[in-house]
Amino acid sequence: MEKGWLSRKLQAAFFATSMLSIYLSADYTIAIREQYLYELGTHFLSWLMIYFVYSGVVILIYGSLVSIFIEWVDRTFIQMAGWIYVLIHGLFGLPFGLISSFNGAVIGGAAALTYGLIDYFIRKKRPRFFTLPSIPLIVAVAIAFILTGLSPEQPPFTRQDAIVEAHAARDVEYDHFPKEEGTWTSVINGYDVQQEVTVNEIDNEVYIVTFRETWEKGLDQGEWNWSYEVSRGAVASKGGREQTPGYYQ
């Protein structure tokens, strides 16, 4: 192997992994755009990282070992034409993709072709180290910006939204706490019962939702309350006062 072969293989692996991950994450983000309507750029970058990790392991280990073997054959026995050198890389990518499906074989072959092409290009042209790796980074950022621009603006996260999230966090179906800010009253087993939901905004689109229940029957009185801090996509229990209502006993 010539000097700098390890750097060349690493650059080829990074480029092939990045372009494969960009394609897969963009394709998946577009497929789920109806389900995740907002912040498509963020979803794209998240899936890009996931695909990069998983495919990167395969390409770095399997792809690099195959490429080293092909180059050894090329230098030791047969001096291949450039297109043959690249094509053989692609052929070695097909069987690995066939493990999943025909489409997987095509994708695997394309990734292997990309690896071989970049490896051969660096071997012959010797560009600066950061020239080729910067290309997928620019492409990924551009796609993320485009998807972000295509995403509609999220509506405000309201007090009512916070109540809905807090109810979902409690996951209780048998009580009568209102589904909106307000109070429910009734008589249960002779007890005057009041169940109340209040909301306090402590920061921009960050709320404290409190469930408060009181009961009274003569001198028998009690109170139960529990609070949640709710923001978009996050609910945290803040604690409260636990007491079993008298009408349960």
- Tell me roughly what share of residues is in helical segments: 55-70%
Order of strands side by side in the largest beta sheet? 1-2-3-4-5
The count of domains is 2
N-to-C SSE string, H for helix and E for strand: HHHHHHEEEEE
**How many distinct beta strands?**
5
Global Rg: 30 Å
User: Can you summarize the main beta sheet?
Assistant: 5 strands, antiparallel
Helix/strand layout:
Layout lengths: L4 H27 L8 H37 L5 H17 L3 H24 L5 H20 L8 H12 L11 E7 L2 E13 L2 E12 L2 E12 L2 E8 L8
Antiparallel strand pairs: 1-2, 2-3, 3-4, 4-5
Helix pairs in contact: 1-2, 1-4, 1-5, 2-3, 2-5, 3-4
Describe the fold and architecture.
A five-stranded antiparallel β-sheet has the order 1-2-3-4-5. It has helices at 5-31, 40-76, 82-98, 102-125, 131-150, 159-170; strands spanning 182-188, 191-203, 206-217, 220-231, 234-241. It folds into two domains: 5-150, no CATH class; 159-248, no CATH class. With 249 residues, the protein is α+β, with helices and mostly antiparallel strands. Keywords: Membrane, Transmembrane, Transmembrane helix. The chain crosses the membrane at residues 12-32, 44-70, 82-99, 105-122, 129-150.
Question: Which features would summarize this protein structure in a list?
Answer:
membrane; transmembrane helix; 21% strand; transmembrane; 2 domains; alpha+beta; 5 strands; 249 residues
What would a concise description of this structure say?
This protein is α+β, with helices and mostly antiparallel strands and 249 residues long.
